[in-house]
Specification:
- The structure is a homotetramer of 316-residue chains.
- With 316 residues, the first copy, chain A, is an alpha/beta fold.
- Chain A has eleven helices and 15 strands.
- The termini of chain A are far apart.
- Chains in contact: A-B, A-C, B-D, C-D.
- The interface between A and C is large, with 46 and 46 residues.
């Protein structure tokens, strides 16, 4: 029911992954149910079907890039909207059953993206260990707990859940790596503007890429709307046909962004609105970009007042 | 008083010029007073002072170009607005006192712009006549009537007023030449939109010409607003500082033009609104330019309705 | 040695995958050595180290999108260039040990991307079979051959190599799905222009995304260079910092593209050239996009000749 | 003959106007013949016919704007090129026959543009004098000398030539007003680049004004070419059809401007080159505008060298 806070949450499982850790930062989720899903598609479908109120799924990783399956699922099927973003530092640990010494580790289970992010550490500390690909960080921890591998690269929450000892923490080569998650619901009124919001869109443009993409960027630039993310994904029809995922600064309720959205609606083959929600500032260094000269909210208000005077025949 | 139709008209004199002829096409002027002014500045000042309700002055000629003094006067001083445009074919005649034969004409009085426009005819028909520059078409007719010159190049109305005989009509080299006049009043509510309107502006831009002028054109292009005229005039401060006079398709009350005007207000150093008024279509060949794909009024309405649904949380 | 045709080839293994199939379409590879690599990184590093002359790796899939690891490897480390593209229809088959009946299949091994692409077929024909994720199409075939699973989703070449029987072919939901592969070498003179070429680039732009990306597109649009692909990838520094991968129509030796490349070099933080090579047209429906009006090669030649006349003082 | 310095000069007469004063600042003209012409057209035609080597004509005035007749004559007929610009402060004086006292002046002869520029001075010092329009500054001085008027507004050179006494000098309301003149010759190799040059062009664009003019400005902006002047003039065909006169920073021999010129040639209906010549800096406050970031000559050279390496297969 619109307006009712969500109580039934689903997240990309298995248990003990970063997605569960991200969900636990959402206050309402602490008091609600938290159910793991086997895939992003399953998580989103349970929201669509009304079996869950909200799903927490990964959007992108600062090392690995966009999570294609989430983008594809958001762009197709019944519409869903993002109501919140959660940005989580990616802290990989090397975990093993209690009593295991680092020097004795001969095999390490890891999801390929995880072992890629820890390549430097592995080369320096376990040059002779065999790295075995598994299908998730949770599966790595489970395999180490079951004795299939000597150790696992996993999230701290995965080590805890499988009662593993942490042999080394913060082993990722990029210490600042983060993953961005989205809390996704069925359509409803967006959360109110906070003054520092993000609006996510999926847009489809005509075949002639330079001209059409140029038009899209001009619609944004002319209104001083900043793009903080642009990702392209194939539409599946043919090579060279894309849907673009944009994150814009601002809220659908803002005058400036409202005007830009109407412009995109006019020039794009299709625009799908994926939500307006507060920006999660995980670092004090990441400041809102100020509006360019002449494009602040005050400039918009001044221009609107001026136009009203013109229309009324008052030119003073 | 706003809303009261004008009854006291002033026009660029002297009597017997194209401006008087243009004024007589304005229905209200037939029943009001019509007073000639010695200059465009005098005509506009009498409107500003409240001594006249409206002034009819020339804006541009299809051969000679913009009438700089009118543009300068509109851009400076107390604001005035155009409420009507009148486009008049420029039909020059060669006129002389009754009894004069074309073959006997040895001197022709003409305003320099008039003799320029009839250069071909003069070369073919009066190769040996001396062309004497005078300061207006009306002065040419008056001089011929007074016997100072054998003949005059003037407007038909000038020949009639000075009781001259027309020795040859339509003597201009460009048979399609026209002059565009403006009826100018003190600020007030603009005439209602007709669906085929013009909006005139004077804009001042920052010194870096390429970037600033590019921004202005982008504000218009993004909204599909067509420019039918762009003239630059020096501001008088220094070489290289200009004010630009723009005629845009549309009415200040239109959504599309309203959005573009607000954009210009934000990116320009100054925008002076010079009026929205019905286009005078003097030729059936001059058709309204249709809006580019995605930029019709229907597209604007669709985008506005879509945005309203987004804001309400309805994504259907 | 530059100019010497490559004889030692490496490809993304294991044997029996689409990459091997793609490599066999390269004439020189039929007569050279073909060695599988365990990862894209390993394949490219063996070229960088001089242990192989060329590597065949996947670039993108019309369903799954860009192959991030290939893009990342091309953008970093010692420069490499693409000398050829190979586009291969993705034809998945369901394969099993000889004697297996479709009705008896209870478990299917598949790479997650493969099972995603065959989801509809599996739902219709094997609704009760368990789909088990494995790490490559080749591993799926090997697992089925070893009796670990009843069947495998794999490439035709994988079924053949592991002596499996094809129970069903063309089982992908998108019958037109293709994968695009690149043949990559150490830098050297590009293959000669053919009139229908692709140039690949990796570009880094400044933080302000709208303005900077707009500049990039303007550099291309002004020269009439068409973009057939644009992909963004995070640089790994922080969320919101991207490298863009562009595929442009044209060859580095062309005047038009040369001028555009110089423009990108000037406005981008960095441009990495990834090669000019003949376009592989896998479908007659995919035609070269003709140059926009005024931007054909003939227009370029005309403008260059005109400029030469101006500089020589001949204005004819 | 190309390369031969001009010796036969013509200028817009009559004698004693600013044009003669401007011509005397050209060193070669001091030793050559200097013949007044009755009109700009006559001056230019005598160069076209080979009767003169160069003509000095006015281009624009910082108060009155472009000299339309000069622009029109340059845009039509046999091509001519500007080889030098001369910028002259406009210093109007009030001159009368010797013995005349200011207080006794009852009639003042003046060209209308001159009296407009001195309106404030006349109102303050001669509020009761009649201002009589005449056809040139030279005619005003001649009329005062002949006793037809009590005084004349004219150039200092005009007072001297007609042996008039200067009753007041620097009487223009804008003390910084200047007029810009052009020295015009038959086509030939342009003067060598000086590092601070101007290139003048006349361009014709297609009917859709916003899009076409936007393309023109993009061609310039993308190459960092600055516009110091843009003037529109009707082509005479119909209202709304214009030729644009542009003054760009740079020389036709420059790489940057050469590339931009080729771009204009491709997107415009027609481009007429009107010359590259040294900028006349009449004020130390008017400095060359530095090239935008990434668009300096050094950036152009760097990009050209980089492209050459790419084409040679050297990527280092």
């Amino acid at each position: 029911m619109p307006g009712t806070p969500p109580t039934r949450f689903v997240y990309l499982g298995p248990e003990g992954t970063f997605a569960e850790q991200a969900l636990r930062t959402v206050p309402a989720a602490e008091h609600g149910t938290r159910t793991p899903a086997r895939s992003v598609g399953e998580a989103l479908d349970s929201v669509r079907a009304g079996d869950a109120d909200a799903a927490l799924v990964p959007l992108e990783n600062s090392i690995g890039g966009a999570v294609g399956v989430t983008l594809d699922e958001m762009a197709e099927g019944e519409p869903l909207v993002i109501t919140r973003e959660v940005i989580l530092p990616v802290e990989f640990v090397l975990a093993a059953r209690p009593g295991t010494a680092l020097a004795s580790v001969r095999s390490v289970a890891a999801h390929p993206q995880a072992s890629t992010q820890c390549r430097g550490w592995l080369r320096d500390h376990l040059p002779d260990a065999a790295v075995v690909d598994v299908l998730s960080n949770g599966a790595a921890a489970a395999g180490a707990a079951a004795g299939e591998y000597d150790a696992a690269i996993c999230a701290p929450i995965g080590a805890a859940r499988h009662r593993l000892t942490v042999l080394a923490d913060k082993i990722a080569d990029h210490p600042d790596a983060v993953t961005r998650f989205a809390l996704v619901s069925r359509p409803g009124p967006p959360p109110p503007p906070t003054g520092d919001d993000v609006t996510s869109l999926a847009i489809y443009i005509a075949h002639d890429r330079v001209g059409a993409l140029l038009s899209v960027l001009m619609e944004l630039a002319v209104r001083g709307v900043n793009l903080t993310r642009i990702e392209s994904r194939p539409t599946g029809e043919a090579l060279g046909r894309y849907v673009f995922f944009l994150d814009c600064t601002g809220h659908v309720a803002d005058v400036r962004l409202g005007e830009a959205l109407q412009g995109l609606r006019r020039v794009c083959a299709e625009v799908r609105f994926l939500g307006s929600y507060p920006r999660h500032r995980w670092s004090p260094a990441e400041r809102p970009v100020p509006a360019p000269p002449g494009l602040s909210d005050a400039d918009y208000a001044d221009a609107a007042a001026w136009l009203a005077r013109l229309r009324a025949g008052e030119l003073s």
